[in-house]
Specification:
The protein is mainly α and 177 residues long. It has two domains: 87 residues; 75 residues, no CATH class. It has three helices and five strands; from the N terminus they run ααβββαββ. A hairpin with a 6-residue loop joins strand 4 and strand 5.
């Protein structure tokens, strides 16, 4: 778990805690307001009890205000972390390679010179002069018992040919030697 993930979970827990505390304070305030209204209906004069309940309501209002500010700050931090994480996760669109001399040895997006369509090339490998050269070099070093055939098993030693999947024409062959 990365530090940003642990920070996100900590902020989420704190936001849940603040929401719960806020709801409890709102419920307490409602109850106090109801009691105060009932007392006012029962007796038409103000007593010390009603004054103390008004003070408690004022304190609850102040606490609620502080909780809202803290929640807004935490929400802003949470949003910044999530936004930064999403920006990191966004992948760039694949680059269209128009210069056929710069084609890599894996399938890529380009424009076919024959049919003029923008396509993702198909690639296949074939035995090249490098494959034969490595085969002869290993045979000369004494690997005649079949080890000299290893270069024929690896694409690293073979030429790569790009082909258009639409018109099946060969676009470019990348030779290894």
């Amino acid at each position: 778990m990365t530090s940003s993930d642990s920070e996100l979970s900590r902020i989420s827990k704190e936001l849940k805690h603040l929401s719960l505390k806020r709801q409890q304070l709102l419920d307490r305030k409602k109850i106090l307001c109801i009691f105060e209204e009932l007392k006012n209906r029962a007796e038409f004069t103000q007593t010390e009890e009603t004054t103390s309940s008004k003070h408690e309501i004022d304190r609850i209002d102040q606490t609620l205000k502080q909780l809202c500010e803290k929640k807004a700050d935490l929400q802003k931090i949470h949003d910044n972390i999530v936004e930064a994480k999403e920006q990191r996760d966004i992948n760039k669109a694949p680059e269209v390679i128009l210069d056929l001399e710069r084609l890599p040895s894996y399938p890529c997006k380009t424009q076919c010179p024959e049919c003029r369509q923008f396509i993702t090339t198909e690639t296949f490998t074939s035995v090249s002069s490098l494959t034969w050269l490595v085969c002869f070099m290993t045979a000369l070093m004494g690997c005649v018992a079949g080890c000299c055939l290893i270069p024929f098993c690896f694409d690293k030693f073979k030429s790569t040919t790009h082909r258009c999947p639409m018109c099946r024409s060969s676009i470019q062959t990348i030779k290894k030697l």
